[in-house]
């Protein structure tokens, strides 16, 4: 709060004292809050408390008062004596009185380094008294510290799902005769067993393959006694292991010959039976339904088999083409396959990028900080899968970071068209933010929940611009210049200094400048001078800024501040 009295302002009055030659209106005191004025959310709120002393306004006089900022007239108000006929605020002749003036005006750049002036006209009996009201300065300039906000809205890269080590399985199976569990020699010649043997031989010398386990599961067909089939399935699992050890030794794969086997006997494979029955085209559907009912209705295995044999041709088809498929031991070699190394990925991405998978291309782009190289790789990812929004989005992020905002916007719209997603919404919000459309930016950030910490950071910038400083403090995460600015604007200068010192701006020009403002607000002249000198040492442009910054007004005449003049 700054109190300005006409008696003490003669030395700065534009045309003399307020009413030095007017008996109708005299000796007014003005209190401007705040003084200097302050810009918040692109507006300047003006509040002036005017005190009229005893006999400060004649009973039949009235005045029209108009504050001005850099030639911009604010609203006019009327004050009047108790017997005046004007439609204004009435001030008693005795003992005087007070009135409060308020207005809000859109900020203009010329408001920063100017004066708030009171102009007016004085009337009596409806006639204006000429040259009786002197224009008077009551406040100096406007603090515009919120405009220090970095409008560095952050875009988000959509993440890849790249896994360097991926679990795979290599399958095969041994088939058995009815009620048997020995592996026939002919089984080793079957294509699946031969292929598995060849794979094991190649895996032995491949450092990128790590066999973790070999799972063997034995099954029996749903015929005969249940208990016997349980035992039979376990025996088939054991013989399957012996068969696999023989295959592994022939392939000279030491790992597959070790103790890495997991065995299980599953008894009658009723689920497998239903699958094979469904695939069979020789049995009519009504017979298939009957077969399933028979299997479910009769718990006694002998009666069940008798009923199934009574099906005639359908049972013959089961016995010939379905049951043999269920008499088996399934083999599953579980192994980890390690993909390309970083160097391999970068080399292939240059020589033959389309050889890589989409996930590999997206990941490889994260291995470089070169924006042009990132753009190339993300473009290749777009070619690989034009339907995946991530590549289109990430091309947009690169363009945004290159300052190509219009092109970036096109990419983000394309990405969000492929899939409505929070990441691209945030990025479109960043485009709107740097383009000055705060409302659209805020709407888009509101739709981007869960996309990442960048969303809250972006919301924090909007909150500062909208004058919601407490909200901004909550939005910013890690220490940053903008977080410190929000704390300062929210009234905590000490916290702002600590945040700057914990941030990457600790020794930057803008960091020192903000600490200088914090020092001024805490009346720490030594810190103010030191930080200002450091700021100017980093960037000479801060000197011109400081020279007219109303944050330092109360120290304007101090000798220690002469270096900014």
Question: Can you describe what's shown?
Answer:
By secondary structure, the chain is an alpha+beta fold. It folds into four domains: 2-143, Immunoglobulin-like, CATH 2.60.40.2550; 156-161 and 339-466, Alpha Horseshoe (Serine Threonine Protein Phosphatase 5, Tetratricopeptide repeat); 165-334, 60s Ribosomal Protein L30, Chain: A (2-Layer Sandwich), CATH 3.30.1330.60; 477-565. The protein has 20 helices and 17 strands. The strands form three sheets. Strands 5, 6, 7, 8, 10, 11 and 12 form a seven-stranded mixed sheet that branches. The chain is elongated and about 125 Å long. It starts with a strand and ends in a 17-residue tail after the last helix.
Superfamily (CATH H level) name of the largest domain: OmpA-like domain
State the distance separating the first and last CA atoms. Answer: 26 Å
Q: Uncertain spans, ≥5 residues at pLDDT below 50?
A: 1-21
What is the level-2 CATH architecture name of the largest domain? 2-Layer Sandwich
CATH class of the largest domain: Alpha Beta
Strand coverage percent = 15-25%
Structural class: alpha+beta
- Portion of residues within helices: 40-55%
Question: What form results from the Cα inertia axes?
Answer: elongated
Mean pLDDT, to the nearest integer, reads 91
- Count helical runs: 20
CATH fold category name of the largest domain: 60s Ribosomal Protein L30, Chain: A
Number of extended strands: 17
- For the record, the count of structural domains works out to 4
Rg, Cα atoms, Å: 42 Å
How is the main sheet built?
7 strands, mixed
InterPro entries: OmpA-like_sf, TPR-like_helical_dom_sf
């Amino acid at each position: 709060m700054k109190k300005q009295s006409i008696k003490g302002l003669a030395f700065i009055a534009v045309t003399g004292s307020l009413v030095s030659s007017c008996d109708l209106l005299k000796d007014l005191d003005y209190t401007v809050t705040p003084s200097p004025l302050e810009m918040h959310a692109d507006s300047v709120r003006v509040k002036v408390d005017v005190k009229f002393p005893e006999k400060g306004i004649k009973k039949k006089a009235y005045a029209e008062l108009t504050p001005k900022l850099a030639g911009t007239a604010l609203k006019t108000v009327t004050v009047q004596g108790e017997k005046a006929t004007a439609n204004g605020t009435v001030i008693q002749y005795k003992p005087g009185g007070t009135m409060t003036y308020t207005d809000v005006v859109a900020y203009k750049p010329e408001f920063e380094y100017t004066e708030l002036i009171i102009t007016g006209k004085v009337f009596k009996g409806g006639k204006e008294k000429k040259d009786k009201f002197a224009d008077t300065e009551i406040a100096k300039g406007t603090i515009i510290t919120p405009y220090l906000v970095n409008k560095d809205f952050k875009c988000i890269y959509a993440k890849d799902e790249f896994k360097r080590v991926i679990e795979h399985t290599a399958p095969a199976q041994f088939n058995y005769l009815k009620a048997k569990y020995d592996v026939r020699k002919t089984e080793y010649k079957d294509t699946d067993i031969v292929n598995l043997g060849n794979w094991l031989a190649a895996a032995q010398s491949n450092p990128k393959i790590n066999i973790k386990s070999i799972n063997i599961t034995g099954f029996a067909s749903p015929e005969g006694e249940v208990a016997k089939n349980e035992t039979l399935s376990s025996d088939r699992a054991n013989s399957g292991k012996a068969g696999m050890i023989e295959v592994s030794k022939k392939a000279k794969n030491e790992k597959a010959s070790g103790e890495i086997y997991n065995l299980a006997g599953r008894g009658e494979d009723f689920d497998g039976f239903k699958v094979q029955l469904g695939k069979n085209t020789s049995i009519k559907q009504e017979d298939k339904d009957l077969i399933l009912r028979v299997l479910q209705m009769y718990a006694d295995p002998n009666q069940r088999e008798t009923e199934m044999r009574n099906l005639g041709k359908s049972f013959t088809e089961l016995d010939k083409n379905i049951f043999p498929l269920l008499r088996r031991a399934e083999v599953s070699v579980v192994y980890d396959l390690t993909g390309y190394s970083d160097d391999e990925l970068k080399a292939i991405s240059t020589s033959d990028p389309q050889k890589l998978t989409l996930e590999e291309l997206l990941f490889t782009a994260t291995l470089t900080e070169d924006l042009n190289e990132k753009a190339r790789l993300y473009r290749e990812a777009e070619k690989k899968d034009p339907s995946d929004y991530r590549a289109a989005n990430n091309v947009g992020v690169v363009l945004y970071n290159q300052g190509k905002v219009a092109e970036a916007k096109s990419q983000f719209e394309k990405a969000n068209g492929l899939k409505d997603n929070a990441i691209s919404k945030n990025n479109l919000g960043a485009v709107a933010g740097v383009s000055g459309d705060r409302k659209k930016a805020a709407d888009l950030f509101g739709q981007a929940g869960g996309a990442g910490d960048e969303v809250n950071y972006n919301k924090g910038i909007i909150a500062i611009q909208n004058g919601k400083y407490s909200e901004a403090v909550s939005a910013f995460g890690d220490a940053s210049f903008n977080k410190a600015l929000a704390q300062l604007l929210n009234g905590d200068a000490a916290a702002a200094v600590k945040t700057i010192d914990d941030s990457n701006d600790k020794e930057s020009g803008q960091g020192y400048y903000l600490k200088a403002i914090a020092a001024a607000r805490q009346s720490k002249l030594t810190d103010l001078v030191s930080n200002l000198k450091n700021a100017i040492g980093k960037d000479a442009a801060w000197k011109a800024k400081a020279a007219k910054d109303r944050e330092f007004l109360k120290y304007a005449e101090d000798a220690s501040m002469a270096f900014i003049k």
